[in-house]
Design goal:
- By secondary structure, the chain is mostly helical.
- It has one domain: Growth Hormone, Chain: A.
- Helices cover 80% and strands 0% of the residues.
- Helix 4 runs parallel beside helix 9 and helix 6 runs antiparallel to helix 11.
Amino acid sequence: VSADDRQSHRYGARSKFYQLMIASAVFGFSLGVVGVLQNILASVGTNARRRQRILSGLHSVYGVSSLLAPLSVAWIAHLGGDWRSVFIAISIVPFLLFLAAFSNRREEPLSKLKFDPSEKSKSGLQGGEWAQYYMGFALGLYVLAEMMMATRLALYVRRVDGMDLTESSYYLTSFFVCLLAGRLLFALLPFRWPLRSMLSVSLVATALCITLGIIASPVFFALSGFFMGPFYPLAVAYLYKHFSDRIDAAISTCMAIQAFLTVLMHAGVGYLTDVYGISQALWVGPAALLLALLVLNSFERVFKKRV
């Protein structure tokens, strides 16, 4: 092989890598926009009585996707496809949705949507953007724990319990099944308890399950998904309760903080795993959930407007 051929091969590989990085960046940006908009539309497009169930139904889709994704990959691989075929096949779905979006000509800009006057800022909060950052920190801590379980559970049971890849995948699948079950429960049944109380129970029960998973049995890791399930849709409903007239800014702020904390989780938990082991690293989850509980229950006290 000549030197020119080797140089051409290196240039081609480097060019494809840059294309992959650029495409990944565009995909991540687009996914962030979609994540914000779907929560906003689900919040402002329904009334207070149905909002909790609509949001739970929306986030149930994530649980379904987590189950369908590996099945889709396995099916395409069974047909003889590779990863390139997987991404091409999956890209058809958002492309069809993109085309379908232009079929609705009655859509109005978000700024023209009519908010329910009976729900406008009854909470009397002060603090402006700082209140959004505060709630964003609480939601980000929860997402940190959820992402930690979703990405580290299989590794934990392989290293600590000596399971093989197949057995570890059962535990991860069970986690997502429980996550879906928790969200479907709140999507189908109208719970009328105070939002902050339900959020607090979710955080405490999840922290307890992860703790029991570390010291007792990994079965509790899977069960933690059930108590995690309702938290995020309930948290978005709680956001709307306090920021109904600026829900777009509030959700955008919260999701930006969540993304930042997720990056910190991958770096921090990865470092702790390398230095202290996966068993010690997973204690980050209960710690983050209990801190989220503290932030959540101090939110109204800290930012309640003093008249």
